[in-house]
Amino acid sequence: MRHEAYLPSPAARLFDRIPDRWRLPLARLGLAWLVLFLLTGRDWLTMADKWWNVSTYNHVLFVPLIVGWLMWNRRGELAQIAPQGWAPGLVLLAGALFLWLLGTLAGFNSASQLGAVLALQAVVPALLGPRVTAGLAFPIVYMLFLVPFGDELVPALQMVTADIVIWLTRFSGIPAHIEGVFIDTPVGLFEVAEACSGVQFLVAMLALGVLIAQTCFRGWGRRIGFLALALALPILANGVRAWGTIYIAQSQGIAFAEGFDHIFYGWIFFALVVGILLALTWRWFDRDPEDPGIDAQALLRSRSIDRLSRGTVGANVALAGIVMLAAGFALWAGYASRAEAEMPARIAFPEVPGWQQVDYAPQVDWAPRASGAAHRLIARYRSDAGDEVDVFFALYPAQDDRRDASAYGEGALVPETPWRWVEPGRRFPEAAGAVLLANGHVVRIAETSWRTGNLTTGSVARLKLATMRDRLLLRRRPTATLILSVEGRGVQESAEAIDRFVGATGGRGAWMDRTAGLR
């Protein structure tokens, strides 16, 4: 009789290496994550799309692999600790899901995506207990880099880069004039565009810097110093790169300089910056990256963790709590998302004393975007004194991820149009301004206000918070956007014309309500 040797599959061999007391806890963790993925699936699909298709977030594709590697390095120490259910972990999960709910109802993707990631993190202490969580603290925290962020930094980074470039340009003897993010030189006008802000490399360097700081340094002083350098270096290097493009253009022409920049600006640039960072700091590395960095015996002896462990519950009870929380928040989200304000059949601008509507004929086409709005109006008003103000108004029945009045690309500056952002305009509680430029010479000043309930604001944060509150309380309130704009005049003249128009309307908030038919 012939006997054949049995060769277990790689999966079977991996399963055999898992300690018996860890098999069921890991199965429960996998099931809990599956439930949460089903609940927050839309956010994970949105994040995955950004990781794959938006160059700023391509580095996030490596984060799951890094988290897996960090956890694998700790497997020997963690095997000495017995997992256990922990009731306070359910409180953490409820908080994470509440943040996800707020973001989902307000169309605030950053909040909903953060909540989705925090929910995955929270089930670790809920199902595995505080000791295991302490051992996995860094990889759990590192999961936060799964959330795409950085777009909020673009305007500030554009201004910082422009400041570096103009200083280097003048220092190198090239006469130049700066207007916001536009730099005029003898060979032409250069723009520090959004793609040149350096945000792509800053957020990637932050993720890499945190990883290196934790795995290659033992002391917090060195970690903080390394991370500060890791953040400062890409900002400075990006400014030097942008200046280099201008400098080369002075002798070789703009076309040659742009071609060189397109070749150089990418992973070559990032690799060079990382190489410089490592060359400057290598000598101070004092920890092996393969070192797990945790002491299981110290975790087992910890009195503070002993006190936390008083909240221990049965693992099956914890899993049932997770499923119930997910189901409860799914029902809450589904019911609240259907709350919308009734829209009038039509709307129209009220009369403004001393101002008349005239033909809207801008020098360069300007049509703000209001995706998902039920109504949109745009008009030009001329005063008896000759001032002209362009007015855009949009009315939404609700705010969500499809109808987000304050989202990127919505409002006064629409991507892929002749208009470019130059610098911030004036800002006050009821409005936020921006200076725009088209075709290198046509200036437009635009001031944006939002209205919901009794709140009139130019702050995205205040609008989001108000929307979250209303949706949670099932209030059916509309949201309105008002953009007042002046084309072809200076900043001060434009501001004065807008102020005179607002004064004639009786105030932004009241006039928006009348336009929407609410008063």
From TrEMBL:
Q: Which GO terms describe its biological process?
A: proteolysis
Q: Does the keyword ATP-binding apply?
A: no
What membrane topology does the UniProt entry give? Multi-pass membrane protein
Read off the NCBIfam families from this record. 8TM_EpsH, EpsI_fam, exo_archaeo, exosort_XrtA
A Pfam family that the UniProt record links to this protein: DUF3485
TM helices/strands, residue ranges: 21-39, 51-73, 85-108, 128-147, 198-217, 224-244, 264-285, 313-335
One GO cellular-component annotation of the UniProt record comes to: plasma membrane
Write the record's keywords in alphabetical order, separated by commas.
Cell membrane, Hydrolase, Membrane, Protease, Transmembrane, Transmembrane helix
Q: Which GO terms describe its molecular function?
A: peptidase activity
Residue ranges of the Methanolan biosynthesis EpsI domain? Answer: 323-504
Name of the featured protein: ABC transporter
Q: Where in the cell is it found?
A: Cell membrane
Give the species this sequence originates from: Pelagerythrobacter marensis
